[in-house]
Write a structure and sequence with these properties.
199 residues, 8-stranded mixed β-sheet, Aminopeptidase, alpha+beta, 24% strand, 29% helix
Length: 199
């Protein structure tokens, strides 16, 4: 974390619910393009801050008072998710796999925060003896830049939505390599706009 000396990555608490809700609200348009089936929306922020850790773990990244990213690791697969992955030719093993979603604030994208978040998600998964991270909701097949980002984080494509191949399913094998180390992260750059502090 030397590139971000003030970065703190920690589990969420109930006190973070408002800030996490605001964070997701600011990502809403980006998230709807990137994760069309992803459940992480502002209405779920409080749930993530209070849910039993047998269901999911959520860690947030803060630079000073600014919430700049989060990683959500899900420990349970809903039947709908299992069915979608089976149809795509990528049946998960709920005993060995975990779901993961990564979110970085728009102003802080391209600075390597996703690499740090995926590494933290991998630590959480390994602590529960999980060997693979499955990208929650998959990615749109017509978003090569987004797919390339996850490939740079170490993910690989394991299947596609059979109904027109609209969604690409990706996984990260935790035993294959250190997560986030497939390629070197891009050099840091200045934020696109002045960050807004947590309210």
């Amino acid at each position: 974390m030397s590139r971000f000396p003030e970065l703190c990555v920690r589990p969420v608490s109930i006190h973070d619910a408002g800030a996490l809700q605001d964070f997701f609200a600011e990502l809403a348009s980006q998230a709807s393009r990137s994760w069309p089936a992803h459940p992480t929306v502002p209405a779920h922020a409080r749930h993530l801050c209070t849910c039993d850790d047998t269901v999911a773990s959520c860690e947030i990244a803060c630079l000073g008072p600014e919430l700049v990213g989060c990683a959500v690791v899900g420990w349970q697969f809903r039947e709908k998710t299992l069915a979608r992955l089976r149809l795509a030719g990528a049946p998960p093993d709920p005993a060995a796999d975990a779901l993961v979603s990564l979110h970085v604030a728009d102003a802080w994208q391209g600075m390597g925060l996703a690499h740090l978040l995926v590494q933290r998600a991998a630590v959480l998964a390994r602590q529960r003896r999980r060997t693979r991270l499955v990208l929650a909701g998959g990615l749109p097949a017509d978003a090569p830049n987004l797919i390339g980002l996850y490939e740079a984080l170490g993910f690989r494509t394991v299947g596609r939505d059979p109904a027109g191949a609209r969604t690409v399913e990706m996984v990260l094998d935790l035993d294959a390599q250190a997560p986030g180390q497939a390629h070197h992260p891009p050099p840091p750059r200045e934020p696109r706009h002045r960050p807004v502090g947590i309210r």
